Each structure stands twice: as structure tokens, then as C-alpha cells.
Amino acid sequence: MPIQAESRRPTPSGTDKAGPIQRRKLYQEVSERLLDRIRGGEFPVGEQLPSERELMQTYGVGRPAVREALMALQRMGLIVITHGDRARVNKVSADTAIRQVGEIARYLLDTSPGTLGHLKEARLFFEVGMVCMAAEQATDQDIAHLRQTLDEHRAALDVGDVARFLRTDVAFHRAIAAVSGNPIFQAVSASMLEWLERYHLHVLQAPGAERFAFKEHARVFECIARRDPEAAAKAMTEHLQRSARLYTSAGPNDVAPQG
User: Fold this and answer.
1) Could you give the number of structural domains in the chain?
2) Whether residue 126 sits in one domain with residue 16
């Protein structure tokens, strides 16, 4: 069915709100109709969408509207566009979904002074929950993986490689979240750490910061290894509260380059 220019969707009865009705661009209508078809199972994961020409004929719009609609769906992580081939439906995971807010989160951190404090608070709440769960649920295999991650962390410290130390620092926190077996927890953990990454290198410039961080991580590990959630929560809280105080005066412009 062709799309009318400047399409407007009716408001369901009983939910009418005051204010002007927002006009929609053609590409927005095209992307929403394609999204409905993907959701409905017409195009399963791995299936190609119709060609641009077919979509133009189906919806009665020009090529720019179709291409912009496809780009919008790709930004959402729903399709993959390969040069010289038709767009293909992508497999969406918890990680894909949560990462969609990444650019907005980074923008907020740069432009809204209070956002960093909110993120630190949310991270403390989240990671304390994760470490308690890890201490309660960790298998021998999980403990072995955490120990290996901590050993790699120590190796980076021993050679004085700050960039590598940061990677293994992040890997340790992600390994704790992985114990849950919950892909949403793992995706949230990865995203929070990525949003803070530009501040994290600055924190590690403080004298002795790497050794402090490693000792605190080792303490957290010991608590998990002996299956003590209360002690693990205390160790993680103290670790994050100490680092949070250093984040207070840090900013993206203060970060030393990796090297």
C-alpha cells in the first residue's frame, strides 16, 4: 500500500492529548512498516529484505526514503546492510539492544554534569548485586575463570602496561557478571564499563592506583572463592566507592592517551 506524504497516525479513542499532531517523514513510515513485517515473522533472522526497487514500488516512495529507512533499521541493529547485496535481518541479542543507548549515554556524560554521578550510583548498586550473586552461584569452573582473569590482571600490573591493565580490569568485572549466566546482566555490565572507560584511564594515573585496584580485585575474588556474599558485597562497595571519589574530578578531557 503506497504511503501518503506527511503521513499521520490516528490517536486511539480515549487517549487523545492536547497539542499539534506531529507529522512524520516518509522514511519513518517505511521503517515502521518494515519493522512490523520483521516483528510479524515475514522476514526471519538471516532472511533478505526486498530490494530497494521492490520497496519503492510497494510503498510508492522514492529511493531516498527507502535508503534512509533501511539505515534507521540498521542503526537499531535489526538489519545488516552489505554493499552490493540486499539488506538482511540481523539476530538481535540483549547486548545489541542495550548497546543502542551507548551513543546517547556517552553524549549525556559529556554534556550533563549530573549524569556521571548517577552512573556511578547505578554501577555501585548493580555490581554489588552481581558480586553477591557470583559468591552464591559460582561453580568451580567460574572460580577458575575468575582466577585466570585476575592472573592476567596481575601480569599487566607487573609489566606496567596501563592500557593492558585497564583491559584486564574491565575483563575481571565482566567475568563476575558472567557468573550469573544472564545475558542482560552481562550486556549491562559491558555497557556501563564502556561508558566509564574515558574516565577510567585518568583514575589509573593517580600514584599507586593500579596496585590499589589490583589488591581490591584480589580481595573481591577471595570473597567469591570462599562463597561469602556478604564479604564480597563489602569488598566491592569499598572498591567502587574509592574509585568513585577519583572519578569526581576526572573528565574526558583529562584522560591521558593510551600507550
Assistant:
1) 2
2) no
Whether 30 has a pLDDT exceeding 90, the answer reads yes
Model pTM? 0.63
Q: Is 18 exposed, middle or buried (0-12, 13-18, 19+ CB in 10 A)?
A: exposed
Task: Give the separation between CA 28 and CA 242, rounded to whole angstroms.
Answer: 46
What pLDDT score does 187 carry?
87
Q: How many Å apart are CA 256 and CA 259, to the nearest integer?
A: 9
Alpha helical stretches, state H, the chain? 26-39, 52-59, 63-75, 94-99, 102-111, 113-137, 140-159, 162-178, 183-203, 209-225, 229-247
Rounded average pLDDT over 157-180: 92
pLDDT number for residue 52: 93
Cα gap 252→71, rounded to integer Å? 30
| The predicted structure's pLDDT at residue 256 | 36
Rounded CA gap, 72 and 46, in Å? 18
In a domain, 74, yes or no: yes
Q: Residue 48, Cβ neighbours under 10 Å: how many?
A: 13
The answer to whether residue 159 sits within a structural domain is yes
What is the structure's pLDDT at 255?
39
At 103, which CATH number? 1.20.120.530
Q: What residue has cell string 593492558?
A: 164
The DSSP symbol for 48 reads B
Does residue 259 fall inside a structural domain? no
Q: How confident is the model at residue 204 (pLDDT cuts 50, 70, 90)?
A: low
87, 109: one domain: no
Q: Which three cell numbers stand for residue 95?
A: 547486548
Range of the domain at 50: 1-92
Cell numbers given for 220 = 573481591
